[in-house]
């Protein structure tokens, strides 16, 4: 049986690497994008040339109607989703908690947590019916340990951990597994606002001596999504080169 995987935020960075990895492992892959349609479609084309059944689908994950419409389209094109990778996320600019306005706070929660809720909500009826499915949510080490001047982002990523652990318990009787990956500092566009010196500092603070790559995270996600992790649920797997030691 072919697994159908949806990777939210699959157009760039970590999501793109996850889509490539899952495509390489025989999944049919739905690549969700928000603004970067062209890169998502190029990736789908690249995966199709490699023999994978891959299609790009647009939706703002913060908008539950768009998520619902996207699921309809995926079901028609590829079939129901049984492997859900909730990766789409935004990191608001760093700043003091006192300076965070409502719009910034609400948008971060709408994308980083609300998007997961909508996707899980929409994927669950099929998973519950089949009594099988795997969900992997992308959190962050900042959600585990907190970060000064990153309260909004850290709070959304801590919420992802609560969601993951609670849902894992709720869905275990239906043989649906829910896990999370908490990446450390991974070299993607998300870190592009940090200057080269800060990036070098972060690499130096990492016991393995480098920043992570999107592929480092994708390998952990693919493991948790797969049957190799059949007895693993409710776990938060840190992929940070030892940063949080
Ligand atoms: P990135 O390079 O900035 O890529 C973000 C991805 O999320 C893009 O594909 C983007 O789509 C998508 N996205 C953003 N808003 C969206 C929305 N409203 N609806 C649908 N998709 C949306 O970030 P990244 O570093 O790959 O991060 C991926 C995940 O890992 C995020 O959840 C992030 O919080 C988490 N993470 C990253 C790091 C790190 O160091 N990089 C560390 C810990 C956790 P478009 O390009 O199509 O707009």
Word description of this protein:
The chain is an alpha/beta fold and 245 residues long. The protein has a single domain, classed as 3-Layer(aba) Sandwich (Rossmann fold). Helices cover 47% and strands 15% of the residues. It contains 8 helices and 7 strands, in the order βαβαβαβαβααβααβ. The chain has helices at residues 13-24, 37-49, 64-77, 102-130, 141-145, 151-171, 196-205, 214-225; strands at 4-7, 28-33, 54-58, 83-86, 133-138, 176-183, 236-239. It has a 7-stranded parallel beta sheet with strand order 3-2-1-4-5-6-7, sandwiched between helices. Helix 2 links the parallel strand 2 and strand 3 (54-58). Helix 1 (13-24) crosses helix 8 (214-225) and helix 4 (102-130) runs parallel beside helix 6 (151-171). The protein is globular. 46% of the residues are buried. Bound molecules: NADP nicotinamide-adenine-dinucleotide phosphate. NADP nicotinamide-adenine-dinucleotide phosphate is lined by residues 8-9, 11-15, 32-36, 60-62, 87-91, 111, 138, 140, 183, 185-186, 188-191.
Which features would summarize this protein structure in a list?
single chain; 245 residues; alpha/beta; Rossmann fold; 7-stranded parallel β-sheet; 8 helices; 7 strands; 47% helix; globular; binds NADP nicotinamide-adenine-dinucleotide phosphate
């Amino acid at each position: 049986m072919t697994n159908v995987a949806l990777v939210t935020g699959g157009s760039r960075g970590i999501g793109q690497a996850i889509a490539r990895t899952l495509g390489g492992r025989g999944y049919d892959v739905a690549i969700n994008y928000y603004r970067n349609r062209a890169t998502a479609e190029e990736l789908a084309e690249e995966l199709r040339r490699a023999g994978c059944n891959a299609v790009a689908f647009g939706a703002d994950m913060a908008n539950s109607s768009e998520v619902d419409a996207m699921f309809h389209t995926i079901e028609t094109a590829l079939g129901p989703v049984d492997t859900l990778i909730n990766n789409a996320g935004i990191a608001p600019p760093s700043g003091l908690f006192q300076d965070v306005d409502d719009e910034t706070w609400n948008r971060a929660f709408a994308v980083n947590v609300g998007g997961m809720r909508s996707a899980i909500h929409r994927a669950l009826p099929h998973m519950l019916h089949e009594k099988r499915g795997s969900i992997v949510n992308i959190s962050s080490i900042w959600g585990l340990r907190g970060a000064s001047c990153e309260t909004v982002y850290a709070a959304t990523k801590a919420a992802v951990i609560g969601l993951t652990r609670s849902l894992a318990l709720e869905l275990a009787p239906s043989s649906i597994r829910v896990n999370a990956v908490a990446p450390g500092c991974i070299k993607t566009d998300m870190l592009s606002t940090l200057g080269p010196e800060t990036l070098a500092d972060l690499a130096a603070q990492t016991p393995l001596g480098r920043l992570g790559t999107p592929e480092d995270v994708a390998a952990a996600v693919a493991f948790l999504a797969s049957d190799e992790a059949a007895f693993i649920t409710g776990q938060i797997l840190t992929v940070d080169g030892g940063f949080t030691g």
